[in-house]
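Sample entry (292 residues):
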Amino acid sequence: MDLDWRHLPPLSALRAFEATARLSGFSAAARALNVTPAAVAQQVRSLESDMGVKLVRREGRGIVLTDAGHHLAAPLREAFAMVANGIEDVRQREATRGIRATTTTFIVDAVILPKLSDFWRAHPDIQVSFVPGACLSPVDFDGFDLGIRVGAPTDWPAFQCEPLLECDTIFVASPELAATGTPQGIPWILGPHEPFDEACLAAAGLDVSQITRRDIGERSLEIEAAKRGIGAIVATEIVVRRELADGSLVQLNLECARRNTYQVILPNGPIRPAVRLFVDWLRQTLAQPPAT
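Predicted structure, serialized as tokens:
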């Protein structure tokens, strides 16, 4: 049947009576509820007044339940036990549910995956999965617990944003391609609509309208394509740090004052403890200096 809360006694009074009945006294109930015995007694008297029936009576130095009290105590005990079990089940399910993150295309491969085993050694029960996507793609919290994007908090005004890392915008190419000509003269891997990359190239002094474009279609292939000499790319320094270190890419002699801030984006409202733990670990990981 549907509950009509208007005709039910206050939950605090029911809780006080259930504890009194289960623990056989106001003092024991007060200790369990972390209140005073007088407060418990007052709640029980209020419940009796609300129901119009005596639920407890004094007997010697203690109290005993009346017949009405016995009839009420049993279903209350069962109901509160069901509530407690339901709450614990939800907590356990949420504690063990994996974390799903939507991220920028390269940050997982460049930074997170190489360190993820460290997280799992410390927290083996927390599963984490990633779905890479474009920097400007929206964050859908129906399917994800957090997002990682490049931008400012104002880009996602409806959500919580926490900065993870700030890094430079740089321009890179394979050593062989870089040796063939000037930055203006070599081809660039650019799709037809890349306003951020185009703005960075213009800020670095290139005539974007005159460069040779090579559109490979899928942004996730850009770094590999650059390594193979297909074209130069605009990148955040952190995602090509490994390639710069092993020499498969070199930095071109161009400068861009535009800095990039990676943000972790979270839904408004309470954050699951496992998600908060992972975000804190992620912040520490991204803040670590590059290995030398």
